[in-house]
Amino acid sequence: MTEPIGPGAFVAVVGASGVGKDALLSYAREQSGLSYARLSGAGEHPGALARFPRRVITRPPGPGEDHEPVTEDEFARARERGAFAVCWHAHGLCYGIPAPVDAEVRDGRVVKDLFASGMPKFASDFVFNTRRPVFADIRVRQAIALLFDFRWVNRDLFYNLYQRSASYFDDSELSAYHRPADARERALLAPFPDAVRPDVLDGTWSPADGDGSGRDRETLRQALTLFRAAGYELDGTKLRDRATHRAFSFEIMVTSKDEERLALTFSSQLARAGIDAKVRLVDAVQFDQRRSTYDFDMIEYRWEQSLSPGNEQAFYWGSAAADQQGTRNYMGVKSAAIDAMIAALLRARERDDFVAAVRALDRVLISGAYVVPLFYLPQQWVARWTYVEHPAGTSLYGYLPETWWHQPAKQGSALQ
């Protein structure tokens, strides 16, 4: 295993064949004002913010991908003399990235910055379609959510880079997570005494993270207790409906290899409770069609939020949207309390009233257990040339490139 190099950053664009990686790189290259950096290192534009090394591939030249074509023998000789920073084999072809990339990263010509923001974070969730009888009982949804071992997933799949999602407005002023409800929220929620869990109302609730072993016996025990209360029993290695003896099963629909990997991991965790969770990988067209018509059991999705949520909230979780195809009420929730909180945030004229209404909405959504909360990146990642500087303070909205500037005194050393 090679040692990490720095302080510069190496950014890789990865994805399945044909998804548009080269189109994305071409666009980024055009926007940065950078022509190709070839094996010699030539071609760099002095105002560019990134370097794009030209790949060496054992494939003849062709449209849509600019690369250095070589034969397999030429590639093997180049690899033996250390001409590549990294090389790999895929789909019967050999790929290599020229060795000068290592020097650029090691010299620190490009560095990575992390920026915090006050915006609601883009968090993903496994979404229950409560229109399906299998997910109609909230105790079933709560039990399934308990079985997601976030600590194991974050460590073994994502290098502990993520934070656990616990709110529909994660890590922002609008989130109700770990905040006790104030008087304004309690007044809004008073007509709906059963809409919010007591621990969500007082700010003590947290999603179960698991113990990181992938075999958390305590959360399994809690989940099976909830399943028994909902009418299911563990029969050997299968969870079954006590009345019908039917095995508990459902399908997780995904549309990418990354989604499939996470879904298969979750499926294996659910199997410990006797649940047969099948993972179905479909193409993007079929996925969109089935999602928009609510023809699924569970999907991975994220609702992107701003600091000014408005009419779109009714499109996300209003009762009327539950029966209208093409909305984003994928969980199929119909709740008078949710409708009332959306109406309250829309009629609010003071910031305190608005924040209270959004937090109250957040509490009702959390209490309904409509999703298995997954994770989000707590910071924004940006790679920049060392001669490009930015303000010491960060905007509420995160980094703003239009406030950055060149520092000419540093530019010479950065490009030497």
Protein model, in words:
This protein is an alpha+beta fold and 416 residues long. The protein folds into 2 domains: 21-108, Guanylate Kinase phosphate binding domain; 125-376, Dipeptide-binding Protein, domain 3, CATH 3.10.105.10. 34% of the residues lie in helices and 16% in strands. The chain is built from 15 helices and 17 strands. The strands form 6 sheets. Strands 11-10-12-6-13 form a 5-stranded mixed β-sheet. Helix 4 (138-146) packs antiparallel against helix 8 (217-229) and helix 13 (336-347) runs antiparallel to helix 14 (351-367). It is globular and about 70 Å long.
Short recap of the structure:
With 416 residues, this protein is of the alpha+beta class.
Note the main sheet: 5 strands, mixed
CATH homology group of the largest domain = Dipeptide-binding Protein, Domain 3
Distance between the termini: 30 Å
CATH topology of the largest domain: Dipeptide-binding Protein, domain 3
Residue windows where pLDDT falls under 50 for at least 5 positions: 34-48, 412-416
Any idea how many domains? 2
CA-based gyration radius: 25 Å
Taken from the alpha-carbon principal axes, the silhouette is: globular
In percent, how helical is the residue content?
A: 25-40%
Question: What quaternary form is this?
Answer: single chain
Give me the number of helical elements.
15
Query: From the 3D coordinates, which CATH architecture of the largest domain would you assign?
Result: Roll
Q: Look at the structure and give the CATH class of the largest domain.
A: Alpha Beta
Helix/strand/pairing category: alpha+beta
Beta content comes to: 15-25%
Q: How do the strands line up in the largest sheet?
A: 11-10-12-6-13
DSSP, total strands: 17
Q: Mean pLDDT score, rounded?
A: 88
